[in-house]
């Protein structure tokens, strides 16, 4: 899924792994209708295995020197405007020059009679090309890096316009490129860009200079861009959307045990059974049940030991929500959710570059989440190790304020913490919280985890056991030494 984006935005911060994931800004959600349309399209494409093979055979985008920003910049830059008579004169001179030279090579005309005419034509072309040189060269330089980037797009749209789909979203994509005759227009652009690449070759370099081929190709491309400047980005978006849906369908095909979620429009709810992290192999993935806004529970506070799985639990919720709103199946046996805006804060770090402490960076992120929950509803908040960069007293008061602000706006979500004083927030009447914990299976082995979320507050700690395991003996408190 290398070219895939959801809602035009890249999602991060919910991936698993040892490296810290970046904190996530509020991602704009697809609405109920769009999420449903995406899922319907993916369901249809799951069975289209032959089509996926054909897409793979199209090849890969090159993008060694060119990327989406380069294409977007090229499309949006001001047009090189030259009078149509100048373009026509250059083309006519070039065509007549080629005809005369060909006739001489074939013996139809004598070189003696043709040389004066050829010299006049070449001189005229050179004069016009020199007057346009400064304006043409920047465009020619940009076209050199675009030469290989439209072959997959052209071939893909040509293949796509001949497909017959049942889902309205896929039908709309096919109808758009067919109505615009996108493959035909891209075919012309490919030929022009191919000509730009060929003129650089040794055998053709001198003839192309004599014929003003570079100038003519640039003017032809600019004329093409004048006609299809706006349509091109729409064609790229059509192909990107299809490719995204097709890649998600491939994921669904490879994970037949995952289920397509049910979307809920009328109420704010997140409910899942046996929810697991999509990046974990099925053999070791441990599922948990989640029910937010069900049975009067708006948020969880998850306490527990180090390495017990709290962060992975939050990431599993976030990752599956992103998959669901992209139209993909979720790693669960059942899932039901609203079209959420995700407000997440995890793996916040100090920044020397920005001059911000961990606490300041996290406070700003949490402020964004509160604001986001007030303007983009419904909202799902996922906050890992909330405000761990400050003292326990201030943390307790600040966390209650943040939770109140989020719940007041109708948001639901999950917070994790090692600070057991924060578990008091879940007991406050009216906030609709619930305490959960994740810990080892027994105190005799503090590093043996079942990764299951259980009701209640954690009663274990494994920090000292971990230090002892790496060779740092626990410190005996002074009062204990004195009693000895």
Verbal overview:
This protein has 484 residues and is an alpha/beta fold. It has two domains: 47-254, no CATH class; 258-483, 3-Layer(aba) Sandwich (Rossmann fold), CATH 3.40.50.300. It has 15 helices and twelve strands. It has helices at 32-46, 49-57, 68-76, 84-105, 111-146, 151-160, 168-179, 182-198, 202-211, 213-254, 310-326, 358-375, 392-408, 463-469, 478-483; strands at 262-263, 270-275, 288-292, 299-304, 334-337, 341-345, 379-383, 412-417, 433-438, 440-442, 445-449, 454-455. The strands form three sheets. Strands 6-7-8-4-9-12 form a six-stranded mixed β-sheet, sandwiched between helices. A four-stranded mixed β-sheet has the order 1-5-2-3. Strand 7 (379-383), helix 13 (392-408) and strand 8 (412-417) form a beta-alpha-beta unit. Helix 1 packs across helix 10 and helix 7 (168-179) packs antiparallel against helix 10. The longest helix has 42 residues, at 213-254. It starts with 31 loop residues before the first helix and ends with a helix.
